[in-house]
Every structure is written in structure tokens, then in C-alpha cells.
Amino acid sequence: MLDMALRYNPPPSWPTPPRGWTPTPDWTPPADFPPLPAGWELWVDDDAPAATSSDVDPEVAAEAAKAAHETETKRRQSRQTWTLLLVGGAIAIFVIAQGVVQIATR
Fold first, then answer.
1. By residue range, what is the domain housing residue 82?
2. pTM of the predicted model as reported, rounded to 2 decimal places
């Protein structure tokens, strides 16, 4: 039996992993990642050339890129919403505390 070295091969529509990152054997893609393009292999023979965009159906790649963009936009909007809520809450607490201090020192 030959030992083949396998290499993780993320599709172009997924975020680029950090340099040197290798998934653990039990790793599964997060649910918010776009679906794999048809026929895409996550693990390839390390001696095989890396896939290029010409290896992927352009329509599938366009749909995957659109889904990735929409997912990132939703994630960013959610992060902005929580940031605004936290900052607004902190300001409200500060203003209320100042009012309480002024009333208490009269």
C-alpha cells in the first residue's frame, strides 16, 4: 500500500486559512461556509497541481462567491449591530450614573 500525502484544498469561495493551518481529522466546515462547488475535493494528492479557477464551473463559482459575500455581509452587519448596542448601552449607563450622582449631591 502506498502512502499518499494529502493536502487540504479549500475552494475559492471559502476564506483562506492561515498559512500552515491543517484541519484536524474530525474537522468539518462551519455551517456558514458556502457549499462546495460540484466535484470539488477537499483533500488532494500532495503531488497533484493545485486547482485553478479554470477547473471550476464559472456559474457554480459565481454562485459560491455571491453566497460567500452575502454571508460575510451578514456577519459584518451583525458585528456592527452588537458594537452599536454595546456602545449605546455604555453611554446610557454613564449618563444615568451622572444624573444619579448629581441628584444625590444636591
1. 6-104
2. 0.39
